[in-house]
Automatic annotation (TrEMBL):
InterPro entries: Bact_transf. Residues 255-439 form the Bacterial sugar transferase domain. Belongs to the bacterial sugar transferase family. Keywords: Membrane, Transferase, Transmembrane, Transmembrane helix. The lineage of its organism: Bacteria, Bacillati, Cyanobacteriota, Cyanophyceae, Synechococcales. This is Possible sugar transferase. Signal peptide: none annotated. The chain crosses the membrane at residues 12-31, 43-68, 80-98, 113-130, 260-284. GO terms for molecular function: phosphotransferase activity, for other substituted phosphate groups. It holds the Pfam family Bac_transf.
Length: 443
């Protein structure tokens, strides 16, 4: 098997951030030289403006567009324009609040426009060029070499992540004719067929920089950053193979320490600012209970009681269990906003302190629903091998689960997190969760 050297989906984003930074610094240096204005004493405002531009670009999605299989130009222009306007507004507000000395020329409105408008055009050029392959190697073609049935099953996994570049299924005779950078996902079943051995030998003799051979599962794992359960073998991954299983794992200990410290800080900050006002609004809407306590499955499937702010109308205890759907009439007005901002999950910080949950991990599900999911979805119980979390890889990558099919999609992300758990992945999930909260983009 050749090494998996094709482009990682996140590399475009990091390249784009670096090029934006080069543009910001380079254009400012050029303006300083043209205007004969020294940058001495401007460092604080320079760092503030650059940080604001990059963070707002991330928050407004000017980088995530690069992962879409098509780059919608008008959407890109809108997002970059909004990033420009919000950066200018933020710097103007900070200037009004701080009132810097007159010799800080970097905060003048004319300077900001002269700096950030060309930077926005530079950012547009960078993103278009990245997608056209002008600034890096050509994007490889993704090809499936398998039976039609296996190919349909693999392509079904891609259709659930429509923004990612989809591979193509081609007959063996067509695969042999393909040129240029290729990533060919070969079904393990075909390697046992004598009819395909000569074709595979010819492909393996090609320049590995131009032709990579892998498997459909490895292709999905790398390009989609998830592990579709139906593509996994029955004996996939034992508990001893996951990073979490090591008794004295430094990352495992660090995760628990971070859970306790951050949970205490978040409770201290959010209780007076968010929890108390939200609790009052919940009570004022229908005079019902503020908190909602429900049994969920935790570590190794052991039940525990999860605590949330109530977001739905009060129902009888014997009401039938049902999925929450978009526009669910049971959701209250304040509950809709709490769900979108994910503030209804804040009381679960108490569950984190008790050790029932972690800040990051698979979301806990109701035991009654899990019985159905375990029968329908392969490898479902493996998600219990880590403590459930307030947020997780599935929560920041997939929509809210409202069916068995949605739960299978979310499980594919949970299994990926299970296999690749690390402090770095936890940090990335935390940042994307903050982005969702700031954009009120939950459900």
């Amino acid at each position: 098997m050749m090494p998996l050297s094709w482009r990682n989906p996140r590399r475009n984003l990091l390249t784009c951030v670096g090029l934006d930074l080069i543009g910001l610094v380079g254009i400012l240096a050029g303006l300083s030289s043209i205007w004969s204005q020294p940058l001495t004493g401007q460092l604080g405002w320079m760092v503030t403006t650059i940080t604001a531009y990059l963070l707002l670009g991330w928050l407004l999605g000017t980088y995530t567009l690069l992962n879409w299989h098509r780059l919608p130009r008008w959407t890109l222009i809108q997002r970059l324009g909004l990033c420009l306007l919000t950066t200018l507004m933020l710097v103007a507000i900070l200037r009004w609040v701080i009132n810097p000395p007159l010799d800080i020329w970097l905060v003048h409105r004319s300077t900001q426009m002269s700096w950030l408008l060309p930077t926005t055009l530079w950012s547009l050029l960078v993103r278009v060029s990245l997608r056209k392959g002008r600034l890096q190697a050509e994007e490889p073609k993704l090809i499936l070499l398998s039976s039609k049935t296996e190919a349909d099953q693999t392509l079904q996994a891609w259709r659930k992540t429509p923004t990612r570049l989809m591979p193509k299924w081609l007959p063996a005779a067509e695969v042999a004719k393909q040129q240029g950078p290729l990533v060919i996902a070969v079904s393990p079943n075909l390697r046992q067929h004598a009819d395909y051995k000569k074709l595979l030998e010819r492909l393996e003799q090609r320049d590995p920089r131009e032709c990579n051979l892998t498997t459909p599962l490895a292709l999905a794992e790398r390009q989609l950053e998830r592990l579709p359960p139906k593509l996994l073998p029955e004996a996939w991954l034992s508990y001893a193979e996951i990073p979490w299983s090591m008794l004295f794992s430094p990352q495992r200990q660090l995760k628990r320490v971070a859970d306790v410290v951050l949970a205490m800080l978040l409770l201290a900050v959010t209780t007076p600012l968010l929890l108390l006002p939200a609790a009052l609004l919940i009570w004022l809407e229908d005079r019902g209970p503020i908190f909602y306590i429900q049994e969920r499955s935790g570590w190794l499937g052991k039940p525990f009681m999860v605590l949330k702010l109530r977001t739905m109308k009060v129902v009888p205890p014997d009401a039938p269990i049902s999925w929450t759907i978009p526009g669910d009439p049971r959701i209250t007005r304040i509950g809709n906003w709490l769900r979108r901002s994910r503030l209804d999950e804040l009381p679960q910080l108490i569950n984190v302190l008790r050790g029932d949950m972690s800040l990051i991990g698979p979301r806990p599900e109701r035991p009654e629903i899990e019985h159905e999911l375990e029968e329908s979805i392969p490898h479902y119980r493996k998600r219990h091998w880590m403590r459930p979390g307030l947020s997780g890889w599935a929560q920041v990558c997939a929509p809210y689960a409202a069916s068995v099919e949605d739960s299978e999609l979310k499980l594919s992300y949970d299994l990926y997190y299970l296999k690749y758990f690390s402090s770095w992945l936890d940090l990335m999930i935390l940042l994307r969760t903050i982005k969702t909260v700031l954009k009120v983009g939950g459900r």
